[in-house]
Amino acid sequence: MKLKHGLLAGAVLLFSAAANAEVKLNDDAKVLGKWNLYAEAIKQDAEQVALMSTWDFRKDGTIHTESEDRVGRTKTLVIDLNYAVEEGVIKKQKTIGRSKMETCNVIELDAKDMTLKCTGVYLFFRR
After folding, report:
1. Which is it for the CA torsion 39, 58, 88, 98, positive or negative?
2. What is the pLDDT of residue 6?
3. In the chain, where are the structural domains located?
């Protein structure tokens, strides 16, 4: 009976690890180009907040972002942030004008969808 429970616990652990597996990047080739940031959430499976933003990952190490201002003070907010792919993750500038970088793990990445886990938030993109 203990063996059966041990095998079951091992299978659950293996499944949960596979479900949260991260994509390790060798370089920025798979993320280059324009992505539509359509939602964010505090957990991967939590309720998502809709966003309307475009992130353009450029070869020169910048992310050119264009976002609709939710508050309505400006029509479009345009910001360029620095980024790099290091040790399999995306390190991006946390705040414009500051050198502090935040780590964003790639949770999902294919030709059409990308999910990033950054500090305290999951970001959901579509091409």
Report:
1. negative
2. 46
3. 24-126
**Confidence band for 12, pLDDT divided at 50, 70 and 90:** very low
* C-alpha to C-alpha distance for 91 and 105, rounded to whole angstroms: 9
CA-based diameter of the chain, in Å?
Answer: 65
- Residues 93, 95, 96, 99, CA torsion sign: negative
State the Cα angle at 98 between 34 and 31, rounded to 5°: 20
Residue with tokens 């957990």: 43
Specify the pLDDT at position 2. 52
d(CA 126, CA 110): 10
Domain formed by 24-126, architecture: Beta Barrel (2.40)
Q: pLDDT tens for residues 102-114?
A: 999 999 999 999 9
Tally of CB atoms within 10 A around 121 = 14
Return the beta strands (E) in 46-112 as ranges: 49-57, 62-68, 76-86, 89-93, 101-109
Q: Given this model, what pLDDT does residue 53 score?
A: 96
Residues in the chain: 127
